[in-house]
User: Which sequence fits this backbone?
C-alpha cells in the first residue's frame, strides 16, 4: 500500500480534503465522470449514520418502502417548478433489452413524482392519512463540477415522503424531521447546525417552502446538511391525489419530503479533520478504539498481548468497537500514524513498563492528549473517554463556528470578512430576491437560511438599506 | 381500503400468488413495465432479511462498500461470456445533463466489471488478499416476462465480490457463502434448500462454476434461492488484476461473486402461504404478535385493555415485536382476518371471560390452532410459541418437499409426474448438455443442480441411457 501524504490544511484546503479521503480510504472516483466508489471505511460511516437516522424515523412512526429507479419522462413534466429544477440534470435511458423505448425513462433525481403517482392509489380517505414513508436509495443528478461526497453524479440518501390531511399536519411533520436532522447532526456527527427557512430562490423545486440545517466547515464555508420541504398541495394537484375528509368533502392531500445524503460524510471530514487526517466521532466509528501493544523482545510480546487480551475481554460486552493491532512488520510509531489517518477516536498504548504499573496509556485522536489509565475497569474508562471525545468534538466545532460568525451591518466589511476567512455573516436582508441575487453576484455568498430561533430585530438590508425585520445568514457554501 | 379477496391456491396458483401479495400489501407494479414498488409490509421483510444476512457476512470477515450504478458500455465487452449473458438485457443511458454521452452507460445488471476494474488499483500484493466485499443495491435486467418479486426489471439484492490468492481459497469462499445462504434460508425463511453445482448451461455468465441453493415452492416448482460463483481468473484476466505472490511472482487473482435478491420474499410467500394469505416466519416478522382485545360493553373495554397493557408490558424487553389492535370500528372477526392475510405469526385473543381465568387464547397463524395460556409469564410462552411456529414452518416445507421428491428412472413416468404435480425428480444424467437441452424441450424441466451431499450411484441417463454416476435434480422452475 502506497504511503499517502496529507497536504497541510492551512496550505490548500481543497487538496487537504482530497488527501484525507484518500489516506483514510473512504472513497475513490469511479471511471464514470462524477461517480464515486464508497470504500469500506467510508461505507461503514454511512451505515452508522443510517442506523441512527433510521431508528429516529421509526420511533416517530415512519416506515421504509422502495420505489423504482426509473421514472417515465412525462411524470417529471407534471409539476411545473419541479421539472424546471430537475430536467437539466437528469440521466435518460433511451434503450433497454436491445430496443429503443417508446417513452424515455429518467433515472430518479428525487422521487416525488413516482411516489405521488402511487399515492393516488393508496390514499382515498382521511383514514389513510398520515402516510409516513421513507426510502434509502441511490439517486442521480448530472453535475458538471463534482467533489467526492459533497457533490457527485450518483449519491446515496434517504428520502422521506409523507402525506397529510391538513397544512398544519404537514408543517408539523416538516419541522419534526428538521428536528431529527438537527439532533442527528449534533448528537452523532458532533456538528452544530442552524435550523432555518430557505429563501424562495433557494427552496426545493416544487416546494411550498423548504427548511434546512446549515453547518460550518473547517474553512469557514457553509454546508447545507439536510433539507425538509413542505410541498403544500403541489404534488397532490399535479398527480390528482385527493381524499375524503371526515366531513365527506374531497380535498387535495398535503405533502412533505426530506432528505439527507452521503455528503454528510464529507461534512464529517471537513468539520473535524486535521493535518493527520480524518477524525471520526465515536458514535459513528465502527472501530472506536485501537490497541497498540508495544514490545521489543519476543518474551515481552507474549506478556503484553496476554495483558491486552485480559483488559479488552469486557470491551465487546460493553459495546465498544475495537481492534488490536498485532502486525509485527510495522513499528508502533507507524501504527499510530496509520490509525490516526483512519480517524479512530481513541488509541490504547501498552508496553512492558505499563504492565508493571497495571496501566495503559490512552491517546485521544481529537486533541492528541495522552494520559495513563488503570487496567482495572478499563471498559468504563474507555466509554467515558469516548463520550468526552464526542462532546469535545461538538464543542470545538461550535466554538469554531461562533468564532467565525459575525453580525455585519456594513457591506464593505461583509466583503472583507468573506475574503479573509469565510464564516457566517448575520446581516439584515429586506426579503427581495433581487438583493439576494446581487449579493451573490458581488460576493459569491448566498443566504443559507433565515434562522428560526433568532430574535426579531429591526435593521436595514445589507444591500439596499431598506427596512428589515431580522438577520439572515450569508455565507459562501459547498 | 378495498376488501381484497384471495383466490384459492388449488384453483389458480398464479392468481393466488398475486392476490396474497395484494392482500398483505407487500408490493405493487410500477408505472414502468416490469418494475415494482415494494410497500412497507414487503420492505419490512427485506430489512429483516438484510439484517440477518449482513450479520452473517460480517461475522465471516466481509465488509460493505458501494460501487456506481453506471458502467461504461465497453467494460461489459471485456469478458466474453459475461457480455453474451448480460448484453441482451441491459438498460442504456445515452443522454445526461441535456447532452448525448460520448460513451453510453449501462445500468448495472451485476457489478463484476466495474468492481474488477477497481480492484486493479487496490490489489498489488498477496498482503492485500483476500479482499472480501459486499454491497447492497439495486440492479436492472430488462426482462420480458415479469412477476412481482420473482422476476422484475429492477430488483434489490446483495452482491459479494471477493478476491483471493489461490483457486483453493476462492473455492473455500464460494462454499462458505453457499453455507451462509443455506443457513439463512433454513433458519430465517424456514425454507429447506438443496446445495449443489449448476450445470455448464445454467452457470453464471463468466463463472468458472456456480453453486446454488434450490427450494421447492407450494406448487411443486423449483426456485433458485441464491447463487455463489467461483469466477476463476476470468475477471482478473479481463481487467488485468495481478498480485505479487509471497515468492515474488506475479499472478492473476482468483475471484468469487454471490448474490441473493428480493425474490426471496416471493419464495417466502410461495413456501408458506395458504388460502388466508401470507405466513411470515417469526424471525422475519416485524409484528410477530397481534393482540386483539374482545369486548362488547364499554366497561368491559377498559378492563380488557388494562389487562392487555399489563401482560404485554414485558414484551418489548423480551424482544417481541407486537401490536395491540384497538380499532373500535372493526369487529374481532374482521381483525382476525385482517392480520391473518398480513401473515402475523401469532394472535393473542383476550376477552372478559379470559380475564376471569387469568388467561389468554393463542392462535397460531401457521396451523390455525388455538390454545389457552396463562397471563403469567406470557412473554416466555410467546417466545416459545414463536420458536415452535418457526420450526413447524420449516418442517412442513421439508415434508412437503420430500413428499414431492421422486427417484425416477423412467422417462414416461418423469413426464407424467411433472405434469401431475411438478416436484423434484432425482434422475440420472449422463453429463451432456445435449441431453439436458432435450429434456428441457420435451418437458420444460431443467437441471436445478447437481446436489453436493447426495451419494454416488451408478445408473443410466434418463434421456439417452448412457452411463451416469449420480442423480441430479430435474424440475420446472420459477
Assistant:
Amino acid at each position: 500500500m502506497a504511503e499517502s501524504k496529507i497536504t497541510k490544511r492551512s496550505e490548500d484546503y481543497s487538496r487537504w480534503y482530497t488527501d484525507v479521503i484518500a489516506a483514510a480510504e473512504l472513497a475513490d472516483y469511479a471511471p464514470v465522470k462524477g461517480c464515486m466508489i464508497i470504500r469500506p471505511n467510508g461505507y461503514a460511516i454511512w451505515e452508522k449514520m443510517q442506523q441512527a437516522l433510521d431508528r429516529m424515523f421509526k420511533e416517530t412512526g415512519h416506515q421504509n418502502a422502495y420505489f423504482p429507479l426509473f421514472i417515465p419522462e412525462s411524470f417529471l413534466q407534471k409539476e411545473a417548478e419541479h421539472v424546471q429544477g430537475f430536467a437539466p440534470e437528469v440521466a435518460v435511458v433511451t434503450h433497454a433489452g436491445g430496443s429503443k423505448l417508446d417513452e424515455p425513462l429518467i433515472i430518479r433525481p428525487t422521487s416525488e413524482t413516482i411516489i405521488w403517482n402511487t399515492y393516488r392509489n393508496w390514499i382515498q380517505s382521511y383514514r389513510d392519512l398520515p402516510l409516513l414513508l421513507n426510502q434509502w436509495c441511490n439517486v442521480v443528478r448530472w453535475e458538471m463540477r463534482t467533489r467526492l461526497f459533497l457533490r457527485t453524479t450518483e449519491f446515496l440518501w434517504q428520502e422521506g415522503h409523507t402525506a397529510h390531511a391538513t397544512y398544519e399536519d404537514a408543517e408539523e411533520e416538516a419541522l419534526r424531521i428538521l428536528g431529527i436532522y438537527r439532533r442527528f447532526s449534533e448528537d452523532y456527527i458532533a456538528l452544530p447546525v442552524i435550523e432555518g427557512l430557505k429563501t424562495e430562490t433557494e427552496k426545493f423545486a416544487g416546494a411550498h417552502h423548504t427548511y434546512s440545517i446549515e453547518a460550518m466547515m473547517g474553512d469557514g464555508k457553509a454546508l447545507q446538511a439536510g433539507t425538509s420541504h413542505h410541498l403544500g398541495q403541489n404534488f397532490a394537484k399535479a398527480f390528482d391525489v385527493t381524499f375524503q375528509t371526515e366531513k365527506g368533502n374531497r380535498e387535495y392531500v398535503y405533502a412533505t419530503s426530506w432528505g439527507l445524503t452521503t455528503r454528510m460524510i464529507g461534512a464529517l471530514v471537513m468539520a473535524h479533520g486535521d493535518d493527520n487526517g480524518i477524525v471520526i466521532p465515536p458514535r459513528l466509528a465502527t472501530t472506536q478504539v485501537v490497541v497498540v501493544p508495544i514490545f521489543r523482545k519476543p518474551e515481552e510480546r507474549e506478556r503484553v498481548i496476554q495483558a491486552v487480551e485480559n483488559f479488552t475481554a469486557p470491551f465487546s460486552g460493553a459495546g465498544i468497537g475495537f481492534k488490536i493491532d498485532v502486525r509485527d512488520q510495522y513499528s508502533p510509531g507507524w501504527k499510530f500514524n496509520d490509525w490516526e489517518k483512519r480517524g479512530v477516536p481513541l488509541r490504547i498504548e501498552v508496553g512492558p513498563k505499563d504492565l508493571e504499573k497495571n496501566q495503559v496509556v490512552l491517546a485521544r485522536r481529537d486533541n492528541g492528549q495522552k494520559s495513563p489509565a488503570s487496567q482495572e475497569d478499563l471498559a468504563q474508562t474507555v466509554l467515558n473517554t469516548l463520550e468526552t471525545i464526542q462532546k469535545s468534538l461538538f464543542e470545538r466545532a461550535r466554538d469554531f463556528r461562533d468564532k467565525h460568525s459575525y453580525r455585519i451591518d456594513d457591506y464593505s466589511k461583509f466583503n472583507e470578512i468573506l475574503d479573509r476567512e469565510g464564516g457566517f455573516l448575520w446581516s439584515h436582508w429586506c426579503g427581495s430576491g433581487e438583493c439576494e441575487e446581487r449579493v451573490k453576484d458581488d460576493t459569491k455568498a448566498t443566504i443559507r437560511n433565515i434562522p428560526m430561533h433568532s430574535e426579531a430585530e429591526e435593521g436595514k438590508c445589507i444591500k439596499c438599506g431598506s427596512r428589515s425585520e431580522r438577520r439572515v445568514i450569508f455565507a459562501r457554501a459547498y
Remarks:
- Chain A has three domains: 13-272, 287-385, 405-475.
- Residues 2 and 461 of chain A are 53 Å apart (CA to CA).
- The longest helix of chain A spans residues 378-403.
